[in-house]
Design a protein that fits this description.
The complex is a heterodimer of chains A (132) and B (160). Chain A is 20% helix and 44% strand. Chain A is α+β, with helices and mostly antiparallel strands. In chain A, strands 1, 4, 5, 6, 7 and 8 form a six-stranded mixed sheet that branches. Chain A has a two-stranded antiparallel sheet with strand order 2-3. In chain A, a hairpin with a 2-residue loop joins strand 7 and strand 8. The two termini of chain A are 20 Å apart. Chain B has 160 residues and is mostly beta strands. Chain B has one domain: Elongation Factor Tu (Ef-tu), domain 3, CATH 2.40.30. In chain B, strands 1, 2, 3, 4, 5, 6, 7 and 8 form an eight-stranded antiparallel sheet that branches. The radius of gyration of chain B is 18 Å and the shape is globular. Classes of the chains: A alpha+beta (132), B mainly beta (160). At the A-B interface, loops of A face strand 3 of B.
Chain lengths: 132, 160
Amino acid sequence: MSVIRSNLIAQLTANLNNSNVSVSAELPFESGGNTLYDKNMKTLYVDEEQISQDTLYPVLDRTNLNLNTSTLNAFVTLDAKTQLSDINSIISNVLNAKSVITNTITSESDYDTEIVLDKITYTFEFRFEKTV
Amino acid sequence: MAVINVTSGSQAVLTLGNTDAMSLPGGSDALVIPLMQDVTLSASTGSTRYSTLDSSSSSAFTTVNENSVSLNMLLDGTVFFGAGSGTNTITNKGLLETSKDKTEIFWSVAFNEGNTTGEYYVKGKGFLSGLTPTASIDAAVWVTPMEIIVNGEITKVIVS
């Protein structure tokens, strides 16, 4: 497991303690045609870290300064008919978990939602940029 | 005829030293400036224009050259603030202190690697100036321009 994913899961677990949503360390794989977050509602799953590298400063001696961008998605599915009483706090705490990742140029998080039948899936995206 | 390629990290190199021999490409105890984004050699010929009644175009005569080497680089902490030791006083004191002290330094710019027969470099002496370190949230690292105000001639060398 990547260090960023591991630290993020630990912070999410702490932030969502005593809330109606729990955090799993499992990857959001599919089982029987359903993703785990569809199957296990009210459980947040964090996907694997995706890394892209771009050259930030090319230099003549070829010791270029590169920019690593790490992106992680997290998913949780809830009942769309009856929203959780602490949904605002849950969203806020998930978004704020980005602060655990330090020594970054930028730390960003946002989310969007998708409603299918009576389920609402929250997809959170975390983005971190570091120079290497 | 052929262009001068810059295709590896050992080409287009600025070397500094407190003696002429030290500042040549590959010189012993030389300070090779790292992390340069660009380097520019300026050999600007001074001129004065004058007009005469018998001509509808102005005439000109040349005056002295004003030579300089300018560059932009990412800041290397040891190179900028000094290693605190070494026979090369620029390495020892760093670029900032050498600039503040207005110490005359020797320099060379290798157009290729400057160490093989037929390769080119130019050399001279001068003063460090124009250090303007800048950091911003977008830049992510410290960057600075630098200029060597050349004192006297630029000497062309073709390695033989």
